Amino acid sequence: xxxxxxMRGLVVLSLVCELGxxxxxxxxxxGMSTDRLKRVGTKVKxxxxxxxxxxxVTIIYRRGQIVDVQAxxxxxxxxxxxxxxxxxxxxxxxxxxxxxxxxxxxxxDGKMALDDPIERWLPELANRQVLLDPVGPxxxxxxxxxxxxxxxxxxxxxxxxxxxxxxxxxxxxALAALGEGDPTGDEWLKRLGAIPLAAAPGERWIxxxxxxxxxxxxxxxxxxxxxxxxxxxxxxxxxxxxxxxxVPPEKRNRLATAYTSDANGKLQLNKGGNDxxxxxxxxxxxxxxxxxxxxxxDYLKFARMLLNKGEVDGxxxxxxxxxxxxxxxxMTIEDRKKAxxxxxxxxxxxxxxxxxMEDPGVxxxxxGSFHWDGASGAAWIAxxxxxxxxxxxxxxxxxxxxxxxxxxxxxxxxxSMVN
Length: 419
Known about the structure:
Helices cover 36% and strands 15% of the residues. By secondary structure, the protein is an alpha+beta fold.
């Protein structure tokens, strides 16, 4: 117990030292109350002490400055390794916005156009058949009225996705089997091409599979492996030195352990989360839907790039117009009536791989803020109206617990604004 108390003291001392300069900055021209920001640190510690999460790292950025950083709790509970600002986290679906940015870069390169049929590069997905019933047998189909377009992939309207039907449906079972046996990208596409669409292209928003298709499209259009494209075109230019699909051995001591909560609310190892990130080699099929790992400071660079309309620290990845396209809400009233959309974002819009805030009705992000979160508990949101970014990184795979944590933190962040 003395050891544990001592370690807790070291964590608190480290946190206080780390926060000193950030909290001092908050007294400047960033329009946030230093006293109110302290509530964020108190709440973070409360979540850790209550056992809801092993550890948390949060960063708040406003008007060109990092105004608050929190790093509390444990990177590994059993080994009592304190969490730190440079702890590496699995992003899960927070990978998706990065994949979409990479795809838009190829559009701006002139390598593909939004209305191009993707079968030009992915012939495995040509001549699609559409299920007569998404929950029915896979052999009851009709011809697709048109090809899948690049635009459909960005907007999650390709007809494939994990939210198209219940898990027990033949379509869902076929999708779930795509990754069996650790396939290469070409093998994965061939398997996908054998499955009919659950909806016609452009007809319905369906979650999760489109960014994986986009990652294969990026590889084919660019002529290089997807992970190499991200490294050369996104991570290296933005100096995201700890971001990738794999944690090499020399950085493994900074990788957070993945947890979830059991039925009694007690933290336990989440075996599904402790996966390829700590494998012996990079994955054969880097997932554009959920395979990346990163640190809080690395992801902040990416978020700042989008908040600043495509450019950060003198490096431009996208034009202002491209970011405008990505952060525009394209969801219609009819879209919102369809269960596949409401089940994920009932009160939000959707652009190109980004959720768009509408009228939230809470103390929190402004209308037009864009964001994403992941099954690992990681979350971020950028607010153009307030020139602000909030990032919350945790490895809590019980999403109902994790989402309450980051939403409570968002509330306290916005309650700290004074102008």
